[in-house]
Design goal:
Largest sheet: 2 strands, antiparallel
Distance between the termini: 35 Å
Strand order of the largest sheet: 1-2
Shape: flat
Number of strands: 2
Mean pLDDT: 77
Structural class: alpha+beta
Length: 90
């Protein structure tokens, strides 16, 4: 199992590093807004900006993607103890 798991992990890592995922980091600006003062004015910033034809889409994020690993404790229905569970707010 350890060998199979290692092979799968290496294959996935190689895929992410070498394949075209369609993400062009050269044309992306990330500004964390959800837990900042900008978050309160997000829609008033987004609505006029999206009118610009050079902008394809706009979304809000809690943190810069990849800056840190988000994990929160959750207790699922039927489970007595809470467990860490990765999360990503968009």
């Amino acid at each position: 199992m350890l060998i199979i798991g290692t092979i799968v992990a290496i294959t996935q890592l190689n895929f992410l590093q070498n394949e075209d995922t369609g993400f062009d980091e050269e044309h992306v600006i990330m500004v964390p807004v959800i837990r900042s003062s900008i978050g309160e004015k997000y829609l008033s910033l987004k609505n006029p900006a999206i009118q610009n034809t050079a902008i394809k889409s706009i979304t809000a994020v809690e943190e810069i993607v990849g800056a840190k690993h988000q994990v929160g404790n959750y207790r699922f229905k039927g489970v007595q103890k809470s467990r860490p569970f990765p999360r990503f707010f968009v």
